[in-house]
Amino acid sequence: MLIPSTETSLGAPLEGYRLKRGFLKALLLKYWDRLRSSFWFVPAVMACLAVALAVCAVELDKAVAEDWLQRVGWSYSGGAEGASLLLGTVAGSMIAIAGTVFSMTLVALSLASS
Predict the structure, then answer these.
(1) Which position among 8, 30, 83, 106 has the lowest Cβ density within 10 Å, counted as fewest Cβ atoms?
(2) Using only C-alpha atoms, what is the Rg of the chain?
(3) In terms of C-beta density within 10 A (0-12 exposed, 13-18 middle, 19 or more buried), how is residue 16 classed?
């Protein structure tokens, strides 16, 4: 939305461009606010970041040698059977926590309804 200026001073032609730039900035801010307040924006950004992180992790895994990982003390150095046991333990504890949270939620809702 460029509004031509009729004044002859040096600043007059720039006033129209400033108005256009301000209008475009306001328009972009309006669209950004509309996009950011939609329900799908945060999950879409998280999904894109997860894909980028997965690609970076695969490339890092290809680039790093296995002997470097063995020198790092905090990395897991067990075999496949140990990893399976560890993941089973973690999954079981997550299910136990989810059950506890669910039962506490039901107790809180039943107390609030009476």
Answers:
(1) 8
(2) 29
(3) middle
Residue 13 and residue 5 in contact, taking contact as beta carbons nearer than 8 Å: yes
Q: Are 51 and 32 in contact (CB under 8 A)?
A: no
Cα 63 from Cα 3, distance rounded (Å): 56
Q: How far apart are CA 74 and CA 17, in angstroms?
A: 58
Joined tokens for residue 81: 């059977």
Q: What is the pLDDT of residues 28-72, one digit of tens each?
A: 888 888 888 888 888 999 999 999 999 999 998 888 777 777 777
Distances (CA, A) of 113 to 23, 82, 100, 101, 104: 52, 47, 20, 18, 14
Residue closest to 95 by CA, chosen among 106, 103, 107: 103
Residue type, 13: P
